[in-house]
Automatic annotation (TrEMBL):
GO terms for biological process: regulation of DNA-templated transcription. Residues 180-410 form the Sigma-54 factor interaction domain. InterPro entries: AAA+_ATPase, AAA_lid_NorR, Homeodomain-like_sf, HTH_Fis, P-loop_NTPase, PAS, PAS-like_dom_sf, PAS_4. It comes from Melaminivora alkalimesophila. Keywords: ATP-binding, Nucleotide-binding, Transcription, Transcription regulation. This is Transcriptional regulator with PAS, ATPase and Fis domain. SMART domains: AAA (SM00382). CDD domains: AAA, PAS. One of its GO terms (molecular function) is ATP binding. It holds the Pfam family PAS_4. PROSITE patterns: SIGMA54_INTERACT_1, SIGMA54_INTERACT_2, SIGMA54_INTERACT_4.
Length: 509
């Protein structure tokens, strides 16, 4: 028998009466101070929603209460932990919940029968108003959440880069201009243009065949720019499925999707904030994403998917493609307005066949790299072998040259190889050898070129010399850093600093 209701003046003194009074008062208190309350049954179905809660329904994607009631709670409230409360029977007095309706302070309390059995749970939402005193806490939470997501992404990218993955790269430049080997007039010119571009804030468009070093130059431009301390973020457009491109670029607002991504995700534009965004294979961008990209570049703002907020960003764009963008514009496959937006500082990266004079230096650099990576000493190439290399058309450019040299290192057991053996390797790797280019000058530049080279900034020349010296010493000492530093008469600290600046010199381990 329930206790008789207390009169206005008298407090009940029996346990049941106190309980009933306290329960009613607390319920009323919660329903007046909370922004909303709802109830789920033992199965996790939403069975009741108070008036306050109903105003969240549109933000959660429901036009009417009828659509909301009777559904499983996790299907209608992204990110909720109500089911856990049902299962554990333990209340969660204060929690922060972020979903597409916003970030809220929430409370979840199990409801028990007289026998103590969990019959359902009540959920309460407090403080959704931005002007409440909890605002600093909520924004700190959101900020930490974003930082955590960034850190996770960066970690994933690093792991991928460590495995040689192509989709994501570490968020720092891996190459400098010193890594772009070549002193032929064509190579010197492309480096000059790229250096000049590094000084400017305008978009850069790198155009050139596959394997010519566009990505390497993009890193180098970033490293030589005023943004060098900022992130270098790259997106290989050809490698991202079309349906994911927008999310990749612009990010996803928290709660835009249910499931794994419900916390939201930063887009590349925001990750590159303060740094450089490298848009690799820009020619592969679908037209509808081109329109959004153009708008972002024009406005300096992006709108994450599922959000109606515009977020500012500050990035310098470097784009690259091996496709003929001009022809694509004419064929209606690439937006003309975007083309002109990106075409401010176009740089044509020459194919290897236009700079055969660089082949000996490239062979040397690629050999150094091979030795450091695999520990195998590649055979010396005799002059007629170098001349043969210089005569090839190298459709895959430097990447192809690198492959051929790897094959040479793996297949030959003599310390020196000449043209005949090299031709054999070329055939075995699928290159029908063209006539040699005779004679292969060694070392490359003629007198005029040499003078032009000596008139470059001294710091650059010194850096190049250092790079070569360190590479040669490392090679001589089998990658042993202590021996290398001793041989060059420099401190180990200085060697480590140079290795950090020139990751291409480092031994992978
Ligand atoms: N001038 C150079 N000196 C030394 N190595 C180079 C040079 N150019 C390119 N490479 C090397 O050749 C390979 C291909 O270069 P990169 O990836 O930059 O080419 P890409 O133009 O971006 O090619 P793709 O269009 O196929 O993506 C890389 O391993 C790079 O380090
Ligand atoms: Mg590339």
């Amino acid at each position: 028998m329930p206790a008789p209701p207390p009169s206005a003046a008298t407090l009940p003194l029996d346990a049941q009466g106190i309980h009933a009074l306290a329960a009613r008062s607390m319920f009323e208190l919660f329903s007046s101070v909370s922004q909303g309350m709802f109830l789920i049954d033992r199965a996790g179905r939403v069975v009741w929603v108070n008036e306050g809660y109903q105003r969240f329904l549109p933000a959660l994607g429901f036009a009417s209460l009828d659509e909301f009631l009777g559904r499983m709670v996790e299907d209608v409230i992204p990110g909720t932990r109500m089911r856990r409360v049902l299962e554990s029977g333990k209340p969660e007095l204060i929690d922060l919940l972020t979903n597409k309706a916003g970030t809220f302070v929430v409370s979840r309390i199990p409801l028990r029968s007289e026998g103590g059995e969990v019959m359902g749970a009540i959920g309460m939402v407090f403080f959704d108003h931005p002007e409440t005193t909890l605002r600093p806490l909520i924004s700190k939470f959101a900020q930490l959440q974003r930082e955590l997501d960034d850190a996770r992404q960066a970690l994933a990218a690093q792991r991928l880069a460590g495995r040689g993955g192509t989709g994501e790269r570490q968020r720092r430049a891996r190459y400098t201009f010193a890594s772009f080997i070549g002193s032929s007039p064509a190579a010197a010119e492309v480096k000059r243009q790229a250096r000049r571009a590094a000084q400017s804030a305008s978009p850069v468009l790198l155009l050139g065949e596959t394997g010519t070093g566009k990505e390497l130059l993009a890193h180098a431009i970033h490293a030589a720019s005023a943004r060098a301390d900022g992130p270098f973020v790259s997106v290989n457009i050809a490698a991202v499925p079309e349906t994911l491109l927008e999310a990749e670029f612009f990010g996803v607002a928290p709660g835009a999707y249910t499931g794994a991504d419900r916390r939201g995700r930063e887009g590349r534009f925001r990750l590159a904030d303060g740094g450089t965004l490298f848009l690799d294979e820009i020619g592969d961008m679908p037209l509808h994403v081109q329109a959004k990209l153009l708008r972002a570049l024009q406005e300096g703002e992006i709108e994450p998917l599922g959000s109606n907020r515009l977020l500012p960003f500050d990035v310098r764009v470097v784009a690259a493609t091996s496709r003929d963008l001009h022809a694509m514009v004419q064929a209606g496959q690439f937006r003309e307005d975007l083309f002109y937006r990106l075409h401010v500082l176009p740089i044509r990266v020459p194919p290897l066949r236009e700079r055969p004079g660089d082949i000996p230096a490239l062979v040397e650099a690629l050999y150094e790299d091979l030795l450091l990576r695999s520990g195998v000493e590649p055979p010396e190439l005799l002059p007629d072998a170098l001349a043969l290399l210089a005569g090839q058309s190298w459709r895959g450019n430097i990447r192809e040259l690198r492959n051929v040299l790897e094959q040479v290192a793996m297949r030959s057991d003599s310390p020196r190889i000449g043209a005949a053996q090299l031709a054999q390797v070329l055939r075995e790797t699928g290159v029908e050898p063209a006539a040699p280019l005779a004679p292969a000058p060694r070392p490359g530049p003629g007198r005029q070129d040499e003078e032009a080279l000596l008139l470059r900034p001294l710091a650059e020349q010194v850096a190049e010399l250092e790079h070569r010296a360190i590479g040669a010493a490392l090679r001589r000492h089998g990658g042993n850093r202590l021996a290398t530093a001793r041989a060059l008469g420099i401190s180990r600290a200085k060697l480590y600093a140079r290795l950090a600046e020139n990751p291409d010199l480092q031994v992978d381990n």
